[in-house]
Specification:
The chain is an alpha+beta fold. The chain has helices at residues 10-21, 42-45, 65-75, 87-113, 122-140, 143-146, 151-166, 177-186, 190-193, and strands at residues 2-5, 29-32, 53-55, 61-62. It has two domains: 2-75, Glutaredoxin, CATH 3.40.30; 87-189, Glutathione S-transferase Yfyf (Class Pi), Chain A, domain 2. The protein has a four-stranded mixed β-sheet with strand order 2-1-3-4. β3 (53-55) and β4 form a beta hairpin. α1 packs parallel to α3, α1 crosses α7 and α4 runs parallel beside α7. The radius of gyration is 17 Å and the shape is globular. It binds glutathione.
């Protein structure tokens, strides 16, 4: 399998963490690219030109990150990271949606901030900042559930890692001691250490 990714992408990091936790990382060739580079080869596989994109051994292109995660967990020989249909699955997927949603707010926020100051939308930036703060407050109340390593906790960890990487001035740990403590524990895992943005 070939995984196209960029080191800074939190969606790609989530997939790489899943690969490690599922014990499949040694079967995946990592190809680091810039998704905006037309010569990278990504667009032949993903017309959306986004990372992550996985090309299976049968030459099937899979995207986006949720689809890749489902594929990898199907191949996962160990304990599944997505529970079977039932309450545990819905709850786990919702925790994953909180993590993905944090990425969905933070990645465009970062892109907006990279534009010239006079072209930035203060309203948009404030809305993304508030959505992020509200989601972090929710996560602070569910850290017990995050102690299970599954697609919920992995997505949240990848999203928090992105906040630390791109928005260190947000100081999200302030007033969120449980979440900060939870991430400190999670960050000892090999899946976290080996996927840090460069
Ligand atoms: N929903 C997608 C989001 C993927 C995504 O937006 N990736 C960003 C990198 S963080 C990307 O490739 N952007 C390319 C671009 O903006 O041109 C997923 O879960 O995979």
């Amino acid at each position: 399998m070939i995984l196209f990714y960029s080191s800074a992408s939190p969606y790609a990091r989530k997939v790489r963490m899943v690969a490690v936790e599922a014990g499949l990382d040694n079967l995946i060739e990592l190809v680091v690219i810039n998704p905006r580079d037309a010569e990278s080869g990504l667009r032949e596989h993903n017309p959306l030109s986004r990372v992550p994109a996985l090309v299976t051994d049968d030459d099937v292109a899979l995207f986006d990150s949720r689809v890749i995660v489902e594929y990898l967990d199907h191949a996962n020989p160990g304990r599944k990271l997505i529970p079977p249909p039932g309450p545990a699955r819905w709850e786990t997927l919702v925790r994953g949606a909180l993590g993905d949603g944090l990425m969905d707010a933070s990645v465009p926020r970062r892109q907006e901030m990279a534009r010239p100051k006079n072209e930035q939308s203060p309203d948009f930036l404030e809305r993304m900042r508030l959505d992020t703060a509200r989601t972090l407050n929710k996560l602070e109340t569910i850290t017990d559930a995050l102690r299970t390593v599954d697609i919920g906790s992995i997505a949240v960890a990848a999203a928090l890692g992105y906040l630390d990487y791109r928005f260190p001035d947000d100081r999200w740990r302030e007033n969120r001691p449980k979440l900060a403590n939870w991430l400190e524990g999670f960050s000892t895992r090999r899946s976290w250490r080996e996927t840090l943005p460069e």
